[in-house]
Amino acid sequence: PPGPEHTRTGLSAETLRQAFLDNLFYIQGRFPEIATDDDRYQALSYTVRDRLLHRWVRTIQAYKERDPRTVCYLSAEYLPGPHLANNLLSLGIVDATREALRGLGLDLDAILDHEEEPGLGNGGLGRLAACFMDSLATLEIPAIGYGIRYEYGIFDQKIQDGWQVETSDTWLHYGNPWEVRRPGICYDVRIGGRTEHVTDEHGRLRVHWRHADLFRGVAYDTPVAGYGVETVNLLRLWRAEAAEDFDFTVFNQGDYVGAVMRKVRSETISKVLYPNDEADSGKRLRLLQQYFFVSCSLQDMLRIFATTGRPLAEFHAKFAAQLNDTHPTIAVAELMRLLVDEHGLDWDEAWQATRHTFAYTNHTLLPEALEKWPLPLFADVLPRHLEIVYEINRRFLDDMRLRYPDDPARIARLSIIDETPPKYVRMAHLASVGGHAINGVAALHTRLLGTTVLKDFHDIWPDKFQNKTNGVTPRRFLMLANPGLADLLTEALGDGWTRDLERLRGLEGLADDPAFQDRWRQAKLIRKAALAERLRAGQGNAIDPASLFDIQAKRIHEYKRQHLNLLHVVTLYNRLKHAPDADVPARTVLFGGKAAPGYAMAKLIIKLINAVAEVVNRDPDMRDRLKVVFVPDYNVKVAQSVYPAADLSEQISTAGMEASGTGNMKFSLNGALTIGTLDGANVEIREAVGPDNFFLFGLDADEAVRTRAAGYRPYALYERDPELRAAVDLIAGGHFAHGDAGLFRPLVDHLLGRDDYLLLADYRAYVDCQDRVADAWRDPARWTRMAILNVARMGRFSSDRAIAEYCRDIWNVAPARVDG
Ligand code: 26V
């Protein structure tokens, strides 16, 4: 029989209301009449956190008792987005909470809007890690996410005079109710100095690392609740602090102020997230960050392992550790060091455990993004690890010389050390040698990985290579972001789709149903109106929800080709200027995304978007048929209001450049049609939704390679296509720069001169394809049918499917159910 609910666990509206008031009083020291937005946000968050803690503790107990095989996701970045709404959803208390607050005259959405999200990542890679944490918990897989608790995450973006201006992120300003600091879970991390090789009393060779500096990592834990299950997993982020006893007592007798200054300096390790600007090599602090979080994480895994009482050589039976790109790859050498130097395993035993523990996910083929560390820097920061890397490499290359006795060039290519001065440590090679699996993030990407950057490794270990196409969580990106559509889906299909996205296929039968189509369009229109309202309130942009919302939202990068999109916008503008009465459907072209602060061309592209917007939006000849809007400060929160509002999703990267993309999946899952190239996961999305329901254009990856090899001359294309020439000339002539022909010169020169990303080669196909988009848009029944079929066939792109594949093919882990 249900007894009275406990204030800290009860889920009814009445109990939630009482708990909220309690927290408002006892945590914030406020009563409703004088509470601020922040007080209300904090009080509600603690109310929800209480309910999570209870499940969290039970999950930890269950894992302790059953000692299950556990996934450790090692990632330098996480972009979880706002926590509060997602946790309400996971706990199934959105409606009860709304009711509880209404009883107090408060609006849940206003409180949700107050949350500052943790921007602890750059983009797709960090967001993927967060989707994976959601799916691991929902699938009831024992998992820990390890990373860095950056005090400053990705910068905030402001637009001033059309230019991006970076301001510092302040996500911790009001405190963070979702984390629990664990001062007792902390580890020493040593760096620098030199090594001593000595023979111990048993005649064994031992290595002592006489380090130069010492830091401490302290755990900050955030609960990750599965949806509709009792499981609450752990995201454990490390903050760097000073190792006080060391600094204060041993080395700084009398130098109190100096010791405090050292302490402050220690904290810089986890101070700020690096934006992916340019190659990492040479950035000492970045290498320190990577080693710092990896060392804390592995020491933590060893501590947990010790509680199982199993022998160390079985470490890999307990843990499957995934390297999210090469950023955590120093883990290979660090685990070897811990097992051999600190725990006395012999090399072969340790190597066996290490290789079976790690697997590596590659997220990019861009040469400038492949991590390599200059040898002198590596030696200075991690002298012992360099010795270990050399030993791993020596053994590996000895094997390879047996296999390829007369191929020194191949041996040099395979080597973990790039021997061309100043010499580098190639992290992707270390990850490939030091793990048991290598995966790409979309079928095309995996193929290219095995035939280009890691071809030599594919030749020796074809079975190590796997594809794991990315996925996205339908909880955050459909249920939370698009409640109207989610309700419509549940009404049509029942609620099973939320945990089994393949069930969306049941929509196929409704694609032509006029009544269903009407409701579908209604749901879309509501999200478009909501976004329009947001933009009006924010930047004063007036846009028409009835127009076609054509959206490109992602980091600004030349390979993603926001400027190809702009060439189309300028082409439409020219057409309307020359034929003001042309019958073209109204379009609103929206852009969102941050440029890395050091990436001048990306910043110039932002300026061009805003410059074009300024001219186009004021031109009376456009008569509201063309609007251009830049949505500032694109982050997870903004993304959640953007995806549901899109009619058209721009996925137009140069084929072969985008590893996968995940925004492409989020748009399509929300009923946007895609205009895209055969790049990354677009290829598989198109196959899934059907070629008739996808606007394909442009060169494929092989054609792109051949085009470049054949001596590509963009200028010739410019001369030949009058519409292209007119668009480029308008930009070059200063039409969007108050007559200043110099402003966009670097961009235009690059397009006409080198055009590394083949915009001009794809321009005609893109513009013609956009004309087909406009034709389809004129026929609402046809468009809506295509949109419904897109959603119906997106089930495969759930991160639940991706995680289930990792569990089966790479991690060999199974669910461990936590009972209610
Ligand atoms: C890093 C760098 C560093 C130096 C210069 C330019 C540059 C450009 C990109 C990157 C990012 C590399 C890792 C990354 O975020 N990859 C993204 O991973 C997503 C999840 O797998 C995937 O969907 C995106 O296609 C891929 O770009």
From TrEMBL:
EC numbers for this chain: 2.4.1.1
Catalysed transformations (reactions): [(1->4)-alpha-D-glucosyl](n) + phosphate = [(1->4)-alpha-D-glucosyl](n-1) + alpha-D-glucose 1-phosphate
Pfam families: Phosphorylase
UniProt keywords, alphabetically: Carbohydrate metabolism, Glycogen metabolism, Glycosyltransferase, Pyridoxal phosphate, Transferase
Sites bearing N6-(pyridoxal phosphate)lysine, chain numbering: K666
InterPro entries: Glycg_phsphrylas, Glyco_trans_35, Pyridoxal_P_attach_site
Cofactor: pyridoxal 5'-phosphate
GO molecular function, one term: pyridoxal phosphate binding
Keyword Glycosyltransferase: yes
GO biological process: glycogen catabolic process
CC annotations in GO: cytoplasm
Catalytic EC class: transferase
SUPFAM superfamilies xrefs: UDP-Glycosyltransferase/glycogen phosphorylase (SSF53756)
Family annotation (PANTHER family): GLYCOGEN PHOSPHORYLASE, GLYCOGEN PHOSPHORYLASE, LIVER FORM
Similarity remark: Belongs to the glycogen phosphorylase family.
Main function: Allosteric enzyme that catalyzes the rate-limiting step in glycogen catabolism, the phosphorolytic cleavage of glycogen to produce glucose-1-phosphate, and plays a central role in maintaining cellular and organismal glucose homeostasis. Phosphorylase is an important allosteric enzyme in carbohydrate metabolism. Enzymes from different sources differ in their regulatory mechanisms and in their natural substrates. However, all known phosphorylases share catalytic and structural properties.
Protein name: Alpha-1,4 glucan phosphorylase
Natural source organism: Parasulfuritortus cantonensis
The organism's taxonomic lineage, starting at the top: Bacteria, Pseudomonadati, Pseudomonadota, Betaproteobacteria, Nitrosomonadales
